[in-house]
């Protein structure tokens, strides 16, 4: 391998962009290829925008390890790049004795992960002070701009449909990651869309992120504020066979009843906007497929990052760099840039849905 290894990254979501920055800071010649005409239009621009602590993540899993590692890596990066973050904390209020047992279990889980939580005297609610909200599009945009400042080339409107050149290829293609793997003869995993629908309200937000009692499958419907002062309720969790970014008519009732019970100002409120995100979920329970491909050693997967990729992105990138054998290279000091939210015409929660609507209008 030459002194400047050539790294091609497939996918311009938050995971691919974090990888681009991490490789560029270590002197690699980075090219990132994104199929859409803009970055972070898929899961990375249509999520909840919450930076999780990992209080509820299963100890010992790679996802948990990388969430916890990212908590250490993130603060200086967000500060240097001007990414907005509000550490508002989260609150899970029990309703009945069974919920009390769940909260005790979550508190023990948090302790095992070394995450600060408190069980409130009186109502027994679980407080998680470290949880907070960001603007996920500004987050991804800041990583992209910084990667470019460190020498990376980012090309949008390029869908990878055959193996690409380069000493190394990072598969960060989200919902397309199974297809990209198969281009290299690797059928070891596949990905499917798990849809999450959200409703945005012009209603004063709760002070904290309000969490429901989780189930084994999802974190459930949350109510949280945005940095621009709106309230969002969601997401749902609907498994799909193919990409469908629409919000189902029935999602409104599914979400509103639960959300109003958690945040009474939502009772009777009309949503101002709705959007859907598609989680890149691994088939057969695969999650956080972050490893070298057995089929082609040039290929490194950063795939099936279903539900915490915004939070863990910097640590996923650090892991990918290590898998590429560049972990020992010194990192260039991060070059700061301007305001990552500047120049964005729409708030992040509108952007992907409006983009899709505009494209549909052009086709009609
Ligand atoms: C409803 C919902 C709520 C969530 N809430 C949170 C949260 O609060 N906090 C959190 O940390 N995480 C959350 N997540 C998870 C987080 O959004 C994802 O883990 C993360 O965005 C995954 O990033 P990614 O870069 O792997 O994938 P993506 O963002 O999907 O990016 C993949 C990119 O690859 C491109 N691509 C695909 N195929 C090709 C190809 N052949 N050639 C070129 N480009 C290609 C796509 O166009 C896409 O832009 C949520 C996700 C959803 C959907």
CATH topology: FAD/NAD(P)-binding domain
**Low-pLDDT segments:** none
CATH superfamily: FAD/NAD(P)-binding domain
Distance between the termini: 49 Å
Instruction: Using the alpha-carbon principal axes, give the shape.
Output: globular
Order of helices and strands: EHEEHEEHEEEHEEHEEEEEHEEEHH
In spatial order, strands of the major sheet run 9-2-1-10-18-17
Helix content, binned percent: 25-40%
Number of helices: 8
Number of strands: 18
Residue-averaged pLDDT, rounded?
95
Ions, cofactors and other bound molecules: flavin-adenine dinucleotide
CATH class: Alpha Beta
Tell me the β content: 15-25%
- Structural class given helices, strands, pairing? alpha/beta
* Whole-number count of domains: 1
Give a quick account of the main beta sheet: strands, pairing sense, barrel closure. 6 strands, mixed
CATH architectural type:
3-Layer(bba) Sandwich
Q: What's the gyration radius in Å?
A: 20 Å
Brief summary of the model shown:
This protein has eight helices and 18 strands.
Describe what you observe in this structure.
It contains eight helices and 18 strands. It is α/β, with parallel strands linked by helices. It has a single domain, classed as FAD/NAD(P)-binding domain, CATH 3.50.50.60. α1 runs parallel beside α4 and α2 crosses α7. It is globular, with a radius of gyration of 20 Å. The model has no long low-confidence stretch (mean pLDDT 95). The site of flavin-adenine dinucleotide has 42 residues, from α1, β2, β16 and α7.
